[in-house]
Design brief:
single chain, mainly alpha, membrane, globular, nucleotide-binding, 14 helices
Length: 387
């Protein structure tokens, strides 16, 4: 099978994973803002995500000859390795719940801040767990200052959200008070509203599938915190599945290779996503519109984009795990810097933070700088796992 064994190869995997994992949330956010139900989008996303995992397992997991202590993917399917299989499936459940929660958090808190808070929580908790699970192969003197930077980013992200929410509320209040449609020259040529204006915020609320105005911002923050806790546990669970630090496997049975663990991990994630989203079709949460399987199957508006998002996420998670197996899962958590990519898409395509106050801009820049420092430090802590 194809195995990443060098530190350079592991870092390359992390960088690609960062790009892919930072892009797919932006695609799902676009679809929600255009009015597509998150249940429909997530069902499409889950299908292609799982198909990518199967493809990776049957190609990279089968290339070359099988080693005695590293059997290929198909060989491992028949082995007695259920303790680690269950651990991998537990990690998949955590990831699925986290991804499902962020769909709704994006609507309340915004793409940029949601990704910052969830990723920072995942690093603070998950990286610490992975460090000790990996027998401390990462450099603690470098790793934990990086974790501290992520922790600071959590508080900066919360401050950015609070400041930006106050800016939006002020825009809407002025528009309501003055009764002037074009208060901020919000209508451009051709009658198109400009991002960041009060008119833009009203138009967005009318078109999106999840209505957020009038609801407490605490709802979004609670959902975001829950998602972050879920994200913090899936990587340590995957680490335990592939390296069996708790010695749950029978003597002589090889550890799960990355591709086998990723298959079972994604199988449970796919199952949870399908079951919950089918339920949400008929019993939606947060007052989203009801739907049905018939409506879902006939909804082709944005379906190919949802399929593409699933492909990106499947590739991104696979690359993260391949890099983590080589250089340590604590260092691989550097891909949690995906808010750097997500924030870029949020500013470029969604008009997030347009026409905000100087205070919001200062907090936003501080947050991004802290992320850049944290990622650089975390990658610098990379070790080398003996295979």
């Amino acid at each position: 099978m194809f195995i990443i064994e060098s530190k350079g190869g592991a870092i390359a995997c992390m960088i690609l994973a960062l790009l892919f994992l930072g892009t797919w949330p932006a695609i799902l956010t676009v679809l929600e803002r255009r009015g597509r139900l998150p249940q429909h989008t997530y069902l499409d996303y889950s299908i292609t995500n799982f198909l990518v995992v199967i493809t990776i397992a049957l190609t990279l997991g089968q290339i070359g000859d099988s080693r005695q202590n590293m059997p290929d993917f198909l060989t491992q399917l028949s082995q007695d390795n259920w303790p680690c299989v269950l651990m991998a499936m537990a990690g998949g459940i955590f990831l699925s719940l986290g991804n499902l929660s962020t769909q709704y958090a994006w609507a309340f808190v915004g793409l940029s801040v949601t990704e910052v808070i969830t990723s920072s929580i995942a690093v603070v908790i998950g990286t610490t767990l992975n460090y000790f699970l990996d027998d401390r192969i990462n450099k603690a003197g470098i790793l934990f200052p990086g974790v501290g930077c992520f922790l600071i980013a959590i508080f900066l992200g919360s401050a950015v959200h609070s400041s930006n929410s106050a800016d939006n509320a002020a825009k809407l209040e002025r528009l309501s008070y003055d009764g002037v449609k074009d208060l901020e020259n919000g209508i451009g040529e051709g009658g198109k509203t400009k991002a960041g204006t009060a008119d833009f915020l009203i138009e967005l609320e009318n078109t999106r599938s999840i209505k957020v105005y009038g609801k407490s911002i605490m709802i979004g923050l609670v959902i975001t915190l829950f998602a972050g806790c879920c994200f913090s546990l899936f990587s340590p669970a995957f680490n335990l599945a592939t390296n069996d630090q708790w010695n749950t496997m029978k003597s002589g049975v090889p550890h799960l290779v990355v591709y086998t663990a990723y298959f079972y991990f994604s199988l449970s994630s796919f199952t949870v996503a399908m079951v919950l989203n089918i339920i949400f079709l008929y019993r939606p949460i947060l007052k989203s519109p009801k739907s049905s399987m018939a409506k879902y199957l006939n909804d082709w508006n944005g379906r190919y984009w949802a399929f593409f998002a699933g492909i990106l996420c499947g590739l991104g998670n696979g690359l993260q795990f391949m890099g983590g197996q080589a250089a340590g899962y604590a260092a691989a958590d550097a891909v949690q810097a995906l808010p750097l990519v997500s924030t870029f898409w949020g500013i470029l395509f969604f008009g997030e933070y347009r026409r905000s106050t100087k205070r919001t801009y200062v907090l936003l820049v501080s947050m991004l700088v802290m992320f850049i420092v944290a990622v650089s430090v975390l990658i610098a802590s990379s070790g080398h796992r003996k295979t």
